[in-house]
Amino acid sequence: MNIIECTIRMKEQARDHYRQLADRVAGAELQRIFSLLAAAEEEHIQRLRVIGQEVESSSTAAVDEGACRFNPAIGLVDPELELENDPDAYRHVLKEEEDTIGFLEQVRSQTDNEQTRWLCGMLAEKEREHLTMLANIYSFVEEPRTYLEWGEFGNLKGL
């Protein structure tokens, strides 16, 4: 498995996790946030697949499949209980994304293969862009509550 396939696998696991969270939480806002996160992951996966088609996989170093796992911070057993007393729960999602960037940087520093090193750097940059997008999703959903004068207009409800 090359680094692109590994990254796609982790992103697919993240997408599936967010979809499951969206199905298991009761609040409409949390459902919306996790649905948006799953959609963002799907879009990101599609971009990674395009990159994978453009890169010759035989020229990259192999990555251990065991390392290609998504490790969620929010569990599926009782996500509402976990999120209930955590006003900044979205930071868990951002941390997961930062962990992916760290993983790519670690692979980059440990490989001797020049193509893999270049790919890891490029993928880490794509992950940083994705991290910004995920932060923007949360800001979009939460914005009406952060400014008193706009509290009556919710981003999730039509006017």
TrEMBL record:
Signal peptide, first to last residue = none
Query: Where do transmembrane segments lie in this chain?
Result: none
Identify the residues that the record assigns to the Rubrerythrin diiron-binding domain, covering every copy. 3-138
Which Pfam family is one of those matched by this entry?
A: Rubrerythrin
Origin, by domain of life? Bacteria
List, alphabetically, the PANTHER family matched: HYPOTHETICAL MEMBRANE PROTEIN, CONSERVED, RUBRERYTHRIN SUBFAMILY
By what name is this protein known? Ferritin family protein
Task: Name the species this protein comes from.
Answer: Pelotalea chapellei
